[in-house]
Amino acid sequence: MLLSSSDRSSWPDGVAGFSAGERKRLALGVCLSSRPRYVLLDEVDAGLDEGMRGQVAELLRQLPWRPTVLLAGHNPRFYELVADEVVSLSDGRLRRAS
User: Fold this and answer.
1) Domains of the chain, CATH where assigned
2) Which of 12, 51, 79, 98 has an alpha carbon within 20 to 30 A of 25's alpha carbon?
């Protein structure tokens, strides 16, 4: 993704001064602006402070067009806030589903 590239010369003007959390929020906004039917988010909560995690969780829960959202990461508490169903995998095996 453009905004997570380590080559800052490829970033749009102004973005180079953004923090990692600001770039993540911008990338999420760009992703959701096209109202996709499916959204795949990897570690969407990484680098965000607790308050911003809550705002991102609320945003994902209240998307008006109700896309299918697949979240991957290592923070089960965050994903349980957002998801209708949580599936945990360990060593390639299903360990828990809710």
Assistant:
1) 2-97 (3.40.50.300)
2) 98
Q: What is the 3-state secondary structure (H, E, C) of the chain?
A: CHHHCCCHHHCCCCHHHCCHHHHHHHHHHHHHHCCCCEEEEECCCCCCCHHHHHHHHHHHHCCCCCCEEEEECCCHHHHHHHCCCCEEEECCEEEEEC
Q: What residues contact residue 69 under an 8 Å CB cut-off, 6+ apart?
A: 38, 39, 40, 41, 60, 63, 82, 83
The pLDDT tens digits along the chain (98 residues) read 344 445 556 666 677 788 888 888 888 999 999 999 999 999 999 888 899 999 999 999 999 999 999 999 988 889 888 888 888 888 989 887 77
What is the phi-psi region of residue 54: left when phi exceeds 0, alpha when psi lies from -120 to 50, beta otherwise? alpha
